[in-house]
Q: What sequence folds into this?
């Protein structure tokens, strides 16, 4: 599984942080890490701590927040995803289809009016 940042994905200046190049087994590991670390233990999850994720040009930490804000950054290298506990529960539900079978589909892992989207795509496309 690879993690990267893509700047200016459309004419509005939006961008995305993307997890891609993975199969069912890694999707399960990612879902389980969110479930255990964030939802159960209520701790933040720096994705660099997951040995199955290769960082390409950015770093992302998932953390619980009082509001669903999505992904933010100050330097386009270090990113933080701030979601409520319910937001992470929803994210786990969005990951389920990738954990049941190999697929070429994709999902954006939250639906927030934010400049940065969070793409989960085995093939890297959207």
A:
């Amino acid at each position: 599984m690879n993690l990267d940042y893509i700047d200016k994905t459309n004419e509005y200046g939006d961008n995305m942080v993307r997890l891609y190049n993975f199969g069912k087994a890694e999707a399960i590991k990612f879902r389980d890490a969110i479930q255990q670390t964030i939802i159960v233990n209520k701790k933040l999850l720096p994705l660099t701590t997951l040995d199955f994720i290769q960082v390409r040009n950015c770093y992302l930490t998932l953390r619980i927040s009082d509001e669903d804000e999505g992904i933010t950054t100050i330097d386009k290298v270090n990113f933080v995803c701030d979601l409520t506990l319910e937001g992470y529960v929803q994210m786990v539900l969005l990951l389920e289809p990738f954990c049941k079978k190999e697929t070429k589909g994709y999902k954006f892992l939250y639906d927030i009016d934010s400049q940065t989207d969070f793409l989960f795509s085995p093939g890297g496309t959207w």
In short: The CA atoms of residues 47 and 60 lie 6 Å apart. The two ends are 16 Å apart (CA to CA). The chain has a mean pLDDT of 97. The chain has two helices and nine strands.
